[in-house]
Amino acid sequence: MSKRYDVREIQQFASEMFQRAGLAAVRADVMAKVFLQADLLGFTTHGLNRVASNLEWLLNGQSRRDGEPFVLADRGNCFNWDADFLPGPWVLTRAIDHALERVPEHGVVTATIRRSQHIACLAAYLPPIVEAGYVAILTCSTPAENTVSPQGSRDPLFSANPLAFAAPAGDYPLLFDISMSVTAGGYVARAQREGGKMPQPCLKDSEGNISDDPAAFKNGGSILPVGGADHGYKGAALSAMLEVLSMALGGYGRADAAAKGDDEANSVFLQIIDPQAFGPRADFLRQAVALCDLWENSRGDGDSPVRVPGQRAWAMREKQLREGVELYPSIMQDLEPWSEKLGVAMPQPLNS
Length: 352
Hints:
Blueprint: E1 3-5, H1 7-20, H2 25-41, H3 51-60, E2 70-74, E3 78-82, H4 88-106, E4 108-116, H5 127-131, E5 135-141, E6 162-167, E7 174-179, H6 185-193, E8 203-204, E9 210-211, H7 214-218, E10 222-223, H8 228-250, E11 266-273, H9 281-296, H10 311-323, E12 325-327, H11 329-342
Parallel strand pairs: 3-4
Antiparallel strand pairs: 1-12, 2-3, 4-11, 5-6, 5-11, 6-7, 8-9, 8-10
Family: Belongs to the LDH2/MDH2 oxidoreductase family.
Keywords: Oxidoreductase
Pfam families: Ldh_2
């Protein structure tokens, strides 16, 4: 059974480990909050699951502990930063703060970031934006990563590019964080670690054979784009769009030889939209709420109710904030050696 932990205690635990790894307390708190937010929303592969790798990057120098991003361009309503391997959750949170300060004046603020260390779960950044009444579009790509093959090709080309979106819509926001591949790399890695298969044949081995065996991916294979073997041209097109928004607008990516050595560093595209820049907020909410209500109340195919993106994640977040966060079993197993190494006591679960 998965164990639940007090939200404040688990966030403080992660923050203290980041501080022992060399981050200032303010930055460590931001990192811990972002990773925890992912687990609160139910994104278990990219939340506290990524703390260990980020600690490793800080200690071995792959992540820059201090300093600010370099401003490459800034027109007020849009800006481009070079993070130079600052920790992803911290630098993206800083970019969001800047955008939120500017959006009341500009209505729409767009930002790109190059060479950010891995930013983990995109959905984790959305709650403060949507709670402020704004619409958010967030995506990223990884110039050094080739894991997703285009339709009709056996060669991996794209990274597993995610797209996250959030909009206010009544009792819960319309919110999603989806990969442009059939599955995310984190789930492939988890299946291989646990000796299991994928839920469906979503991988392609190096010879072009479709497979549900994670070993096919590890041995020079690829993940299928959204749409799978039959309609993967749709996911490949979307992957290309997201790489243009993040890499091309940011001015750094696959065309640069240096990018091949950037490991998991991300290129990021962020856009925050104030609905009131286009008309009364009430008009926007009326349309957004109507859409979600129609979706939620549509007839289901079976016994399960129709689920609107964001409905379950938001309810899970509220429940876990009240009752404690439920962590995937392997997360604390992976963090225990770091707890011993850094001298930070492990938090005790609320349930035995």
